[in-house]
TrEMBL record:
Pfam families according to UniProt: HATPase_c_2 (PF13581), SpoIIE (PF07228)
Taxonomic placement: Bacteria, Bacillati, Actinomycetota, Actinomycetes, Kitasatosporales
Domain of life: Bacteria
Name of the protein this chain belongs to: SpoIIE family protein phosphatase
InterPro entries: HATPase_C_sf, HATPase_dom, PPM-type-like_dom_sf, PPM-type_phosphatase-like_dom, Ptase_RsbX
């Protein structure tokens, strides 16, 4: 399911945000009052953006690893100067960005916020069912958006955890529109049939499945504690980010999965604690990684994905941004 993106440039977007969040919660199977709670979260966040922010957006979608949904707000507004006061439930003044955040924090299963004066604010509120794995330790975020004027995204992503091993796929169907979306979903289905295969065998399986489609660029990233492996075909990029710098910039081998592919090569690189690995399609302007600000470099994965997609998406193309750290689950 692609990310529902709502540009909050007018107060009328508040109602749309609430209804979208309620619908996504229903599709995620959240029971009881949770869909209504999702609507409240989206309404509060959208209202804040409409009243006080500049260039605000909401991203509403299922959690990358399943079990619930999330509402992410991103803006280029003034930032929140009195953050702790804003997080107090009942703080409702309409004069500053941050009204209603206390209620959002109380309702959400997991709540994350980062703000910087003059830069903007990022908020992620996640909701899960009563029996789902708590999302706080997932440390993975992704945004998948169709090109402007397209209903379907020719991009897609998937993430699977198996013990301490996390495997992520980003796929970019050739072109955009329904046929690109068909290629992307074909790759996702093939990935889920055997996500634990060695990466060369896995990308070969994707190549075979995609022969019945127009083809795609694919990038596969496998995260282990302390190290990562990457293989890809086409223009899906990977890099690492720490609070200090950006490193290990890699792109896929030439070719199109499903049409022509050279023998896949796996490239390994270290992943020290606190390092985020990023995988994205060419619908994200690669120049974002030239000199990201310290604020961006310190973002947790789920806010980093939203921040880059919000600020550096190329709207003429489908765009996917995935950010992750190794799984925290026990072997």
């Amino acid at each position: 399911m692609p990310t529902a993106h709502i540009a909050v440039d007018h107060y009328s977007a508040v109602h749309l945000a609430a209804e979208t969040a309620r619908a996504v919660a229903g599709r995620c199977g959240l029971p009881g009052a949770l869909p209504d709670q999702a609507a409240v979260i989206a309404s509060e966040l959208a209202g804040n953006l409409a009243n006080h922010a500049t260039g605000g957006s909401l991203f509403i979608q299922p959690l990358p690893l399943g079990g619930g949904m999330e509402v992410v707000a991103a803006d280029h507004g003034p930032g929140i100067s009195a953050l702790q006061q804003c997080l107090t439930d009942g703080y409702t003044t309409g004069n500053t960005l941050g009204a209603g955040l206390g209620a959002v924090k109380r309702i959400a299963t997991d709540f994350t916020i980062r703000t910087q004066p003059g830069t903007g604010t990022l908020v992620c509120a996640r909701l899960t069912g009563p029996e789902a794995t708590p999302p706080a330790g997932q440390e993975v975020g992704a945004i998948c958006l169709p090109a402007d004027r397209e209903q379907l995204s020719g991009d897609a992503y998937a993430v699977v955890d198996q013990g301490t091993v996390r495997t992520a796929l980003v796929v970019d169907g050739l072109g955009h529109g329904p046929q690109a979306a068909e290629a992307a979903q074909t790759a996702i289905r093939a990935f889920h049939r055997a996500p634990d295969l060695p990466l060369p065998a896995l990308v070969t399986a994707l190549h075979r499945a995609l022969r019945r489609t127009r083809g795609a660029a694919v990038g596969l990233l496998r995260l282990h504690p302390g190290r990562a492996e990457y293989t890809g075909i086409g223009n899906v990029r990977v890099l690492t980010m720490t609070p200090l710098d950006v490193g290990h910039r890699l792109s896929g081998q030439p070719g199109i999965a499903g049409l022509n592919m050279t023998p896949p090569q796996v490239r390994a690189f270290p992943l020290p604690p606190g390092t985020t690995a990023v995988l994205h399609s060419d619908g994200i302007d690669q120049r974002w990684a030239q000199s990201p600000s310290p604020f961006v470099r310190r973002l947790p994965p789920h806010l980093l994905a939203a921040s880059i997609a919000h600020s550096h998406r190329l709207t003429r193309d489908d765009a996917t941004m995935l950010a992750a750290r190794p799984s925290q689950r026990l072997p």
